[in-house]
Amino acid sequence: MLACGRSGHVTYAPAEADVRHQLSARTAESGDAWRCLRCGTFVTGEPQLTGPAAQAPAVRRGQEIRSALILRVFAVERFVRALVAGVLAFAVWRFEYSRQSVAAAFQRDLPALRSLFHQLGFNISNSKLVGLIHHALTLSPTTIKLVAGGLAGYAVIELVEGVGLWLTRRWGEYFAMVATSLGLPYEIYDLASKVTVTRALFFVINLALVLYLVLTKRLFGVRGGKHAYEARLRSESVMEAAIEASAADRAEAAETEQNAAAETHQNAVAETEQNAVAGAGQNAAAETGQNTAPDLARATAEADTAPRARGS
Hints:
Elements (H helix, E strand, L loop, with lengths): L1 H6 L4 E3 L2 H7 E4 L3 E5 L6 E3 L4 E3 L11 H35 L1 H21 L8 H10 L3 H26 L3 H24 L3 H20 L8 H12 L1 H74 L1
Parallel strand pairs: 1-5
Antiparallel strand pairs: 2-3, 3-4
């Protein structure tokens, strides 16, 4: 209902009369009403679309709406990663062309920074950040280009993941699952060497995405695979329910017609048998009558001649 309130109802009039009957209703005041393919309620007015039932738009309902929302949350997180990696790739690439000026500025300002932090009670000479900057300034041009290329490649991968998850495409789910799974062993290695909040957070997010995709989207044959996933979608579809109901009505009508034809045939057979039995009875009676008539005449004649014989 919330999705329909935000995006509007989706009504569709199938070309098949029996399926159309399942999705429409007649009201006394507003005329025809059509069932929304998303929320299932009847909406008065003309349908938005019409055509064969097989070409009806695929509309997310129930669990699929919640699933799309979760995937888009993961997609936003992937977009943020892609943006950060892209900015870092550009910064590293630009660093190669301005390394000399960066090195000069770093060497010029380092003493002042060291004195400032020393007054605050910090010794930045042992700082990992300062050591990282020193190491970066000594990298070869080839290494810097490889680092920039790696960050750019990572940004592209995250961008593709985000687009696939946002659009809730099957290929995007597979791509995100495989790409994320390949990074889990390295994240486990990082956590084994040192546990930090950032590393633990990234690991939990990635592991949750992999498990969610595999279990709910039934990737790689899990829980019945693609066929079971599509069967669940069909079971939640208003259009599929209407098609199945119309098919059941047709099957019931055909069965009723078949039963009526069988009953008519049985009655005809019974009537024929009864007529045959009655005819046979009549023939037997007539034959019996014909056979007993001479005997009866003979007995009558004998009865008439007996008194005359005694009189003589």
